[in-house]
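Researcher: Predict the fold of Alkyl transferase.
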Amino acid sequence: MLPSPLLTTLVHRLFSLITSLLLFLLSLGPVPQHVGFVMDGNRRYARELGKKVAEGHSEGFHALRRTLEICLRLRIRAVSVYAFSIDNFNRSEGEVNALMKLAKQRLTELCKHGDLLEEYGVKIRFIGQVALLPPDVQEAVREMEEMTANHKNGVLNVCCPYTSRDEITTAMKSTVQDIRDGQISSSQITSRDVFDRLGTSQAVAAVDDKLFYSPRDAGKLDILVRTSDVKRLSDFMMWQACDDTQLHFVKTYWPEFGLSDMVPILLGWQQKVWMKRLGLL
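Model: Structure tokens for Alkyl transferase follow.
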């Protein structure tokens, strides 16, 4: 027997109320500045349920929207997601094409008038070798970044096509070029100069720095989450995650990831912050 429409509506409203209450309580404590996600497990999720791989990726984008909204409601100002590795071009042509088409559609929806990124005043930035993407996707990327360019309340870094080593190499090349152009002195160069030229760091720096409790460290990751119980970074934001980042490897596949997974992660981070402030760490 199917539940009545009234019962379904009441359940949805109750869930919404509980969600709002949980997020309000979490917001009373310290909130991380920058959270990263390795969105792993879409393919395994699909295969275990007898679905097509494309369906797993589709449900993965729903999880991204769900998780991003949680972060934005908590006023987490920078969210970085590993959407596509440069190495993923080695996958089958059919899967890559389907994923590109899906990414173009779903991410564009986030940027549209009245949707999530406009509602919260958050810009979208694509980090990585965008020139490797198909021409129509490159055009969509430019349009999405232009649509959200004036938003200053936060940033969603979509790392695609990306590897951390490539990001670091690109930042090094940029630093060397600035030395050649006379913008900085080679005798004064520090690792901070290179870090500030990372694509993700530059994207975070474009956010209103008054919204961060520590603007200088906003490029670093406070929390890094990887789903599907895989315990490695897979060349994602290795520099940003090397300094006091709280790592979480959760068993949940990315398409199933949501509030029940985020709450203990955030509570654990808050506990760590409070213990530091009390001198217990």
